[in-house]
Structure formats: C-alpha cells, structure tokens
Write a structure and sequence with these properties.
The protein is α+β, with helices and mostly antiparallel strands. The protein has three helices and five strands.
C-alpha cells in the first residue's frame, strides 16, 4: 500500500492510499482538484501534470521520452515534472509528494 500526498494549486494537501493502477487513476478516484486525465492515461494530453518533490524523484524515476515530448508543450513543466498517468502505484512510491501543476 502506498500513501501519496497531493498538494493542489490552492495549497491544500490531501494524502490518499492505493496499491494498484496509475497515480492519475488514484487522484481521480479521490477527486484531487486539477488532475483531469482527459486522455484516460495514454500520455497524450498532459492534464495530469504534477511536479514531484525533488527528494522523491529517485522513487518515481525519470519521465520517458514520450512523456517528455508531451511535457514540452506545457509552459509550467520543469525538471521535476511528470505525467502521473505514467507513474504506477506501488510500495516503491510510498510517501511521495506531488504538487499539481497550474
């Protein structure tokens, strides 16, 4: 079981738990504001853009080439950006903090 914290653009912090699926699905299941996932998780819309806390990058890993290409289209992307549809919920990401992109 992974406990994952989302910080929304208004500064609200919500911690949710899950053990399968993508982080985007987990966020949508818990109505995390700002995570839309319009493409359903196929890495084609960037409506699940999050910023990973720098200390947590080792847990989530780097974005894939396709993911980086999609993030290039987002003005708010930085070196800590990920599309949370591409991050699998597992024990390996327990404790990770994601800041929802504006």
């Amino acid at each position: 079981m992974a406990n994952i914290t989302f910080i929304t653009t208004d500064g609200a912090s919500t911690t949710v738990s899950g053990n399968s699926g993508s982080v985007m699905e987990l966020a949508r299941d818990h109505n995390i504001e700002g995570i839309l996932g319009n493409c359903g998780g196929v890495c084609s819309c960037a409506t699940c853009h999050v910023h990973v806390a720098p200390d947590d990058m080792r847990k989530t890993g780097e974005a894939s080439e396709i993911e980086r290409d999609m993030l290039e289209l987002d003005d708010n992307a930085d070196e800590y950006s990920r599309l949370c549809c591409q991050i699998v919920v597992s024990d390996a990401i327990d404790g990770v903090v994601f800041r929802v992109a504006e």
